[in-house]
Amino acid sequence: SVVNRIDAVENSTAAYLSLQTEEALIAARAVDEKLRERKRRTPLEGIPYGLKDNMCTQGILTTCASKMLYNFNPPYNAHVYDRLIDEGGILLGKTNMDEFAMGSSTENSAYKITHNPWDLNKVPGGSSGGSAVAVAADTAFYTLGSDTGGSIRQPASFCGVVGMKPTYGLVSRYGLVAFASSLDQIGPLTKDVEDCALVLNAIIGHDAKDSTSLKLEKKDYTQNLKQGVKGLKIGVAQAFFGEGLQPEVRKSLEEAIEVYKALGAEIVDVSFQHLDYALSAYYMISSAEASSNLARYDGIRYGYRAEEYDGLVDLYKKTRSQGFGDEVKRRIMLGTYALSSGYYDAYYKKAMQVRTLIKEDFEQVFGGCDVLLTPTAPTTAFGIGEKTSNPLEMYLTDIYTVPVNIAGIPGISIPSGLDNSGMPIGMQLLGPILSEENLLKVAWAFE
Ligand code: GLN
Question: Recorded GO terms, molecular function (predicted)?
């Protein structure tokens, strides 16, 4: 069973921060019992899965891989967790991540380093690295991750699995510990595209507890999955094939383009005007929102509190200095600076204006094609420790994923091949708002 598999490989991959395997086995036996008398009630009934440790699970630690939440047992469930309970899913455990989802390699976890199962000396990507590894190493049938600037798609690409960031608002963020609320979105990591459609079916839907949740009818993403791509227009933009792209990644995507041509799709050239500014705008906006969202960790209400302090201000200072890791502090400082009076117009407001321009760029691009094909990341997985001393280099790994969150559109990463050292390459497919059905169809056709 998957629990045996966890016993065998979790020591070397370290995908999980906490495990519920005892409870999972009991729940699985109960489902087995029921399935002797009747059919599966839902496709996910009895199927074991993992959740990124920033989704609230009542009575089960939810740490965000931070010392700040080392003892946080949420008093409520995230919407997605409740949905999966309704579906009869079986929670195996909470997966490792970069602290508060800030990072691209899962090396910012306060607790452990997760290893890429394709090469244990390489990072799994991040911030949903544990979720990607659990799927890649068969220690979960599927997992959920969160994606603020690429944190589902980039680790999916590094670990050779499928990862989807849905349209902003399609999946409720209720009970997802906030990083940057206008960018955060929950989505599935799975072995293949059909599983991705099944998990998406389960987690979407309007939720009154998230004011940004879209009011839409439920949809079955498996219905038109296998219809093929004949006549579809697939866009390719130079802006996504620039400097810094690993040659094998480029080659793999060129081959993918040929596959789509052979399947009857039409390949069209499209172009962007403002994409060069996406990464800067993303780090400005996401850090600004993070500085505000993370103000709640004050050592008073819940989570970590410094042991010795001299008065209230000192309590805040010591708690936050000791409770947050370096990357989180960097973002809080950057965000606080960008939002301060006197700098607001020059940084935050400017970034918001760039955000509008990038949205318009995508609207114009999707006037000329149905789907955009890009690399998910400029390179395949890099070595553990290779980029930890250079945050800017780490940020550059997000260059192809962040524009998607800025525009609020959906994106999926699927495996497209292997590089010369045998590491998986990810291809990203993007579409206009609420085009998930089409994206899954195009992804399935390639697979
Ligand atoms: N790597 C990006 C960051 O560090 C994206 C994170 C994410 O999507 N949660 O902000």
Answer: ATP binding; glutaminyl-tRNA synthase (glutamine-hydrolyzing) activity
Strand partners, 52: 95
* Atom number in ligand 1 closest to CA 103: 4
What does the pLDDT average to over 117-138? 98
Find out whether 253 and 219 touch, Cβ atoms under 8 Å.
no
As for the ipTM of the complex, it is: 0.97
Q: List CB contacts of 403: < 8 A, sequence separation 6 or more.
A: 275, 278, 282, 358, 362
Q: How many angstroms is it from 198 CA to the middle of ligand 1?
A: 25
CATH superfamily, domain at 2-203 = Amidase signature (AS) domain (3.90.1300.10)
Q: How far apart are CA 24 and CA 43, in angstroms?
A: 17
pLDDT tops 90 at residue 243: no
Q: Which residue has its alpha carbon closest to ligand 1 atom 10?
A: 102
The pair of three-digit structure tokens given for residue 319, joined into one six-digit string: 């708690």
Tens of pLDDT, residue by residue over 357-397, are: 999 999 999 999 999 999 999 999 999 999 999 999 999 99
What's the pTM value of the predicted model, to 2 decimals?
0.98
Q: How far is CA 285 from the centre of its chain?
A: 18
269: helix, strand or coil: strand
Nearest residue to 359 (alpha-carbon basis) of 412, 407, 409: 407
What's the CA gap between 222 and 194, in Å, rounded?
Answer: 7
| Whole-number Cα distances in Å, 319 to 184, 204, 310, 315 | 26, 37, 12, 6
For ligand 1, what atom is nearest to the CA of residue 150? 8
